[in-house]
Amino acid sequence: MLRYFHGGKTAADAQSLICEECGEDIVSLSTCEVWYNRFKSDKSDGCEDVSNHKIKIDELKTLLEKDPYLSQRKLAQQLGVTHSSVWKYLKKIEEEAETQEVDRQVE
């Protein structure tokens, strides 16, 4: 999709071309429009900037300290992100904790 965006195609054109290449109804026009809006808002790679991730991870840690039994979906609602983003943030938190534990053992 990004190549169509950079190639000057509209979201509708991209949707049509992707469906021709990959199969009918593989992607909706609304999905293409969402991604085009992300691309236009200077998130050209489709990702949020790193500092925003750090803020969300910090917010997630705070929420978990208050209530460690919140579901990923509830956390996602409170953070304003998808539940898959919460899963990724949780993995990052876990990796950070493992790294800190290894560093502590080495010292």
Automatic annotation (TrEMBL):
Annotated ranges, domain Mos1 transposase HTH: 1-42
Signal peptide annotation: none
Gene3D superfamilies assigned to the protein according to its UniProt record, in alphabetical order: 1.10.10.1450, Winged helix-like DNA-binding domain superfamily/Winged helix DNA-binding domain
GO BP of this protein: DNA double-strand break processing; DNA integration; double-strand break repair via nonhomologous end joining; mitotic DNA integrity checkpoint signaling; replication fork processing
UniProt domain Helix-turn-helix type: residue ranges: 60-96
GO MF entries: DNA topoisomerase binding; double-stranded DNA binding; histone H3K36 methyltransferase activity; histone H3K4 methyltransferase activity; single-stranded DNA binding; single-stranded DNA endodeoxyribonuclease activity
Annotated InterPro entries: HTH_11, Mos1_HTH, Transposase-MT_Hybrid, WH-like_DNA-bd_sf, WH_DNA-bd_sf
Taxonomic superkingdom: Eukaryota
Gene Ontology annotations for the cellular component aspect, listed alphabetically: condensed chromosome; nucleus; site of double-strand break
One Pfam match: HTH_11
Annotated protein name in UniProt: Mos1 transposase HTH domain-containing protein
